[in-house]
Prior knowledge:
1 helix; flat; alpha+beta
Amino acid sequence: MSQLKWFKSSFSEASGNNCVEVAATPDGVALRESDAPAEVLTTSRVALQALILSAQAKLLAQRGSDR
């Protein structure tokens, strides 16, 4: 997985050692934590999208109930 082009959020710390990095793979998506780059989790694009959409929906619901 060393050939992958890793991306991290623009919200990451300046040192870059406290973030999740994402890379596209031929079969889906690879995820790793910047302070443990040898440990890589792989998943499908559909599964990652479902996770993100679910987290966004939960956040929006929480914000709505705070009003």
